[in-house]
Design goal:
- This protein is α/β, with parallel strands linked by helices.
- The protein has one domain (4-245): Rossmann fold (3-Layer(aba) Sandwich).
- 47% of the residues lie in helices and 16% in strands.
- Strands 3-2-1-4-5-6-7 form a seven-stranded parallel β-sheet, sandwiched between helices.
- Helix 2 links the parallel strand 2 (30-35) and strand 3 (53-58).
- The model has no long low-confidence stretch (mean pLDDT 94).
- The structure holds NADP nicotinamide-adenine-dinucleotide phosphate.
- Residues 8-15, 35-37, 40, 60-62, 87-90, 110, 136, 138, 181, 183-184, 186-189 line the site of NADP nicotinamide-adenine-dinucleotide phosphate (NAP).
């Protein structure tokens, strides 16, 4: 049976790692990768399992009407859309007084409105046969991050949206997952923490592996919850700091 998976934000970082990891799943046959940078998308395609049918689409997810048309084209071509992985994200860490309305809006447009928009379009197809949707939020969405106001609050919206949709779409046989990665070595993380050594933190491939496990049958009872994905060493370091300050 043919199964189709759309992955946004697949030109680099966590989206690329998820695409590579899922391309080794036997039961997914078609992939459509979306982002704005063709070069990055081509590189991701080259890293994926070449036995799969892999397409890419250069698109800005905040061009909402165009995305609607794109999903229709994909749905008509493949008949069903079985998996939607919403990874694309934007961060510009600023405090309240430094955040412009434009930047606030951009954070919400990329991180929240674009997920709402593509999910709505995809569910028109997915509701015929059921499927799985996975949204990438962040640990910043569930704990305070002074100086990251727009990013953190937009990720809280992703967590809430995922919980609500998990209940709302269950009748169609659609499961909705939400993962919140901790610090992960990508371009986006460099913007959030420019002085950090990327070798000391979680790598995108670790997140890719978790997503693959989650979307397998083993993850069948886990939808709806916000699942934190974090390198074990971070938890240990946190415990040590707590002990020292006690
Ligand atoms: N890295 C971390 O520590 C971390 C932690 C928690 C959560 N996350 C979340 O994980 C997700 C992936 O982030 P990452 O760290 O892998 O960052 P990244 O390397 O900067 O990748 C971001 C991806 O989003 C795409 N994108 C951004 N704006 C877009 C738009 N308007 N239209 C289409 N695609 C767009 C980018 O592609 P183009 O530029 O080619 O369009 C790129 O593929 C994000 O949602 C992020 O918030 C990351």
């Amino acid at each position: 049976m043919s199964r189709t998976c759309i992955i946004t934000g697949a030109s680099r970082g966590i989206g690329r790692a998820i695409a590579v990891s899922l391309s080794s799943c036997e039961d997914i046959t078609n992939f459509v990768l979306i982002s704005r940078t063709e070069e990055g998308l081509i590189e991701t395609c080259q890293l994926m399992n070449g036995d799969k049918n892999i397409q890419y689409e250069v698109a800005d997810l905040t061009a909402f009407d165009d995305v609607g048309e794109l999903v229709q084209t994909i749905g008509n071509e493949f008949g069903t859309i079985d998996l939607l992985i919403n990874v694309a994200g934007y961060a510009n860490p600023k405090s309240l007084l430094e955040t412009s309305v434009h930047d606030w809006e951009k954070s919400y447009k990329v991180n929240v409105h674009s997920i709402f928009n593509i999910t709505k379009e995809v569910v028109r197809y997915m509701k015929k046969t059921g499927g799985k949707i996975l949204n990438v939020a962040s640990t910043a969405g569930s704990s305070a991050r002074p100086g990251w106001l727009a990013y953190a609050s937009s990720k809280a919206a992703v967590i809430s949206m995922s919980e609500t949709l998990s209940e709302e779409l269950a009748d169609y046989g659609i499961s909705v997952y939400c993962i919140s990665p901790g610090r992960c070595a990508t371009e986006l993380r460099k913007i959030l923490a420019p002085d950090e050594d990327p070798d000391t933190i979680m790598q995108p491939e670790h997140v890719g592996q978790v997503v693959k496990n989650l979307l397998s049958d083993d993850g069948i009872c886990l939808d709806g919850q916000n699942i934190v994905v974090r390198k074990q060493v971070e938890k240990i370091a946190k415990k040590q700091v707590t002990k020292q300050t006690m």
